[in-house]
């Protein structure tokens, strides 16, 4: 049985495909259209899924759409009625697309795909919950879903066992932890639904001076983690901005303009809302643990991408084991909706596993073999060297150890916002200059943003302050780059932390791996497991043999404002546009110095919307 899952029309549209309950493929639409966070109907992602499974739409028995449009429309109408006439302009602008397209979603799907089977729409947070629990390694778990808003729910918790999954309680719009965090994202000059991770990265530069003010004025937080926002400070429920004049008066400034100077206020606000978010998550988790009395927790929803909060939740030890959906945003809900149909709607049993999880390590996207790569290179008359796997690993490890930056394009594309070693840019974490080099010459992004380390799972305790509590295999596991951990004291260097507000402090050597050590001695970890990515694990092993260090930089294969590369052509284009030194395509390696001159008709740095 084939079940196609779809998410669309808000942000991060995606498609996924199940075959007899097994997740066989999934991809975001943005990777194909090259429009970051593309919200359009995911025709390209759907076509990829069908091609990968060698099937047609006639072979699909069910389509699962990730939310109920009628409920979302209900929320829009009732919100307007409760706030009228304040939201009139927003309401009028949104109605045409709802009345013409979104309300008639099933009709739209049938017409667009020529689909004749059954279409099922779980609620938004049911899809999030399904994406959190069903791919996890657990047979019994609590789950928490946290995002901006679905139909009405913004946060929910529940209990799942075997194939059953039930939401117990919800917090409803307009009271939303995700939208609260996004309000500060907007106020500090970053793009909503895109720049939240920048706010998280900015937080260590500031001091949480405004925590009490936020808790006193903006949010009424209870001991069980439930909360209400004071909506007189916000505008997202009635207008086109997140905050209003009363919010701006509270902090004595208008919102920062995008690309303008980041001030001490922005840093302190980032630190404050990050701390508030962590405290709310901890209170909710403690309440959920008390209510469910289980050791396992699954997380999904956009807030679950806050890896600093996740790391603190893990270290607090409220739950013994934590699994986080790697595509926690709306893209992952395409997968969750399909899983909901297979397990909850159809009642199929979950099979036992001996792997990290039931999601194939999130390597679910497109794949290009050596024949595809060689054809591309020969067609373009591009100089390259083809090596056997062991020689390739040896060569690349030498290049990285020599402080070269390597584009790494290998295997199936990752599903979710993180590059996990298939569409990655790799560098030497020991280099004191690599963080600045990769930010300014490769990624063309803000200098304050840290990079993530990849490390062999068996080496993680030698370098980071973790223990063995969050993995059912009794080893610390963060395969999806969704947890932050402090670097071990023994690996740190003495530094002067007196100037909190200097964004250039990120370039200061703070540990033996300065390129991946943030200003607060933290790092967003990706553990690499032999059974999940043998080639990347081998690369780290050989790098360790040569340097004594099992850690490299791993950042996504893209530049600022562009989605992660999908195709061979995308990878080569990004390689030539930047100051990367080498490009690995499967078993082929390309030297930048040997490549022909690369010309484009447009100034590519201005093609993509900066965020």
What attributes characterize this protein structure?
Nucleotidyltransferase, domain 5, about 600 residues, 21 strands, 3 domains, five-stranded mixed beta sheet, nine-stranded mixed beta sheet, 19 helices, DHBP synthase, about 20% strand
What does this molecule look like?
- The strands form 4 sheets. This protein has a 9-stranded mixed β-sheet, with helices on both faces. Strands 3-2-1-4-5 form a 5-stranded mixed β-sheet, with helices on both faces.
- It has helices at residues 30-33, 43-52, 69-83, 88-100, 105-113, 124-133, 177-187, 196-202, 211-218, 245-250, 264-292, 307-316, 330-345, 370-379, 389-401, 434-443, 460-463, 534-547, 568-577; strands at residues 2-7, 14-19, 22-28, 62-65, 118-120, 140-146, 153-161, 164-172, 219-221, 227-229, 296-300, 321-324, 385-386, 406-409, 423-428, 452-456, 483-486, 522-528, 551-556, 582-585, 588-591.
- Mean pLDDT is 93; it is low at 602-611.
- It contains 19 helices and 21 strands.
- The chain has 3 domains: 2-124 and 342-361, Nucleotidyltransferase, domain 5; 177-321, Nucleotidyltransferase, domain 5; 370-606, Alpha-Beta Complex (DHBP synthase), CATH 3.90.870.
- β20 and β21 form a beta hairpin.
* Strand numbers in spatial order across the main sheet: 13-21-20-14-15-19-16-18-17
| CATH arch. level architecture of the largest domain | Alpha-Beta Complex
Major sheet description: 9 strands, mixed
Global structural class: alpha/beta
N/C terminus separation? 41 Å
Query: What number is the mean pLDDT?
Result: 93
Strand content: 15-25%
Helical content stands at 25-40%
Q: Using DSSP, what is the number of strands?
A: 21
| CATH topology descriptor of the largest domain | DHBP synthase
Helix count equals 19
- Runs in which pLDDT lies below 50 for 5 or more consecutive residues are 602-611
CATH class of the largest domain: Alpha Beta
Q: What radius of gyration results from the CA coordinates?
A: 23 Å
